[in-house]
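Ticket #4471: structure output looks truncated?

Reporter: J.K.
Steps to reproduce: submitted the chain below (325 residues) through the standard prediction queue, then opened the result file.
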Amino acid sequence: MPVTSIDKDPENLTMTIVADFPVPVRRLWDAYADPRQLETFWGPPEYPATFTRHDLYPGGWSEYFMTGPAGNRSYNFWEFLSVAEGESFHVISGFADENGQPNAHMPRVRMHFTFEEAAQGSRLVGRTTFSSLEEMEQLISMGMVEGTKAAMAQIDDVLADLRSFAADRMVEAQLLSDTQVRVSRIIRGSVQQVWDAHHDPELLRRWLLGPDGWQFTDCQVATDVGQTYRYAWADANGENGFALTGEVKESQPPHREVTTESMEGVDGPPTLNEQTLTSVEGGTLLSLLITYSSKELRDTVLATGMTDGMEISYSRLESEVLQGA
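Returned output as attached by the reporter:
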């Protein structure tokens, strides 16, 4: 079991957990940076976590829910106060409603995680600071210590599973709910390079070409909130074309962007696309959370081979734009 000590200090309103792991610091850090990995151990086995947002940068925000045995959900958030890549991050953590809005009636804590080299590999020191003794006693009575132990007991299996999260894996889609899909891929390049490749028209024209042999016929890029974009393609004969359009709703370069997306000429509400770029070993983890208007639309789009097309484009991004950059 990785937890080596738990120190509760009511006088200073803190609880400190120390855990040791037989892996390099970078491997341990990436388990917390990658929402696919983090959600496999953040909640205890009977209350697994699902992260619908995870922005590991200063000023970033994470949202997740834990699902109980009866299907009940507990919603939570993190607000990132500071991040030193590979070394530490500091968050405000609290309860939220199903829309991710903080619950003002429940306690909030500050959590500071430090990742250190140790004789056997790496050490995680997690220090939680409470607002008052009453809130400290309340959260501990709710099973905070037991839940943390049970959750962290799962980390070893995740850390040992290098294959599932390796940088050479193709695009993968994970169903998070009836209307949400998280698409993930590690792209061999820095966060800034991947961001620029999504916003520089000259770079976009080199990789966002669609299927082999197709033409990129229109590339109107949006970079600021409120701006609209339009991308259009046609086959080698200039026929069977289609276009995607949308509006930028949120932009936090070079880490996060939220846009709407619609297929031109097709009726129905647009999707909401939340793209986050996170530095991990081997490159940049691109996480794209897509929210559809219905389960039926979600399934219809996935059945078109969407992820296969995305893989073609991301592979081209690596080979034609980022290789040697």
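Triage note (M.O.): checked the attachment and the full token line is present. The CA atoms of residues 39 and 49 lie 5 Å apart.
Status: closed, working as intended.
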